[in-house]
Structure formats: structure tokens, C-alpha cells
Amino acid sequence: MGLRRARIYREFRRPYTRTAVTVHRKAYIKGVPGSKLHTFEMGNLAMRGKFEKKVYVVSCENAQVRHNSLESGRVSANSHLRKTLDEKNFFMKVLVYPHQILREHAQAAIAQADRFYQGMAHAFGKPSGSAARIRKSHRIMLIEVNATGLQAAKQAAKRVCDKMPMRCRVEIA
Length: 173
Prior knowledge:
By secondary structure, the chain is an alpha+beta fold. About 20% of the residues lie in helices and about 25% in strands.
């Protein structure tokens, strides 16, 4: 089974937390799959904070963003900046980390499925990934460039916005 749609996890609500009074080992989430997002800083790390312009990707609404969405935004922005600018002419950083563990209750969706599972009784779910909980007007990604590379940075930030499951805007500082 592949990935579920982003709209399933996009909603920003407090997840159900199972509190087991008698059996404490049932209150913990075991076996969390690893995040695809490993690299958080790219470009010229020596020039961090010394570039003229800063371009931010800012969320317009509350949402949860899965780790693979953050990784795809990072990859697309990084590849665009490497093509248009040299690697020495920009610095990019992912400002959020996917801490929230996503769980799914896998159900058999075929005929006679009542033999395979117990329905929704004790439906805590198994961990399927992780997500970052992002509030409205929270900065997701930072791109630093000189004034000559501002257009390329704006285009890269726009590509990041296209990969996010919520509306985003590009902010220049």
C-alpha cells in the first residue's frame, strides 16, 4: 500500500493519545519510520547570515506538513538555485522539523473483511510517517541570496509553495 493522500493528515487538530493505566507499554508509539528529510542547510554554509536579501516561505494557514512534502520542496528549490545561481551564491535552510508521528489504522477493504480485523475497537494505529505542525504565518524555509539572485530565490520559494499541502506566501526581508 502506498502513501495516503495529504488531505488525510493536513488537518491541524490534537492527535488522540492513548493512556493505558494497567498496561503501560501500550501508551508508547514503537517503531517510528525514519524521516526522508535529512539535510536542513544547503548552499554556501560559510556565508550564512552574510547575504544581502532573505526570502522566506511563510504558511497562510494552520496545517501539518509530512516529511516527504518538506523533502520534495527542499529538493526542487535546491536544484533550481543550483541551476540558476552557483552553489556559492546562496544559502538555504529548512526551518521546521517533522516531530509529529502520524498513525494509520489499516483496514482490509475487500469483501469478507470482518475476518481480518476487529473493526474500530482499540484503533490506535501503526506509525506510518512524521509531520511538522505549522501554524499560520510560521516560516517554513529560508533562502539567502545577494541582490542579483533575488529573482531566482523568489522562483525557488514559489516552487516550495507548490509542494506544500496548504497555501503559502513568499516574504522578502
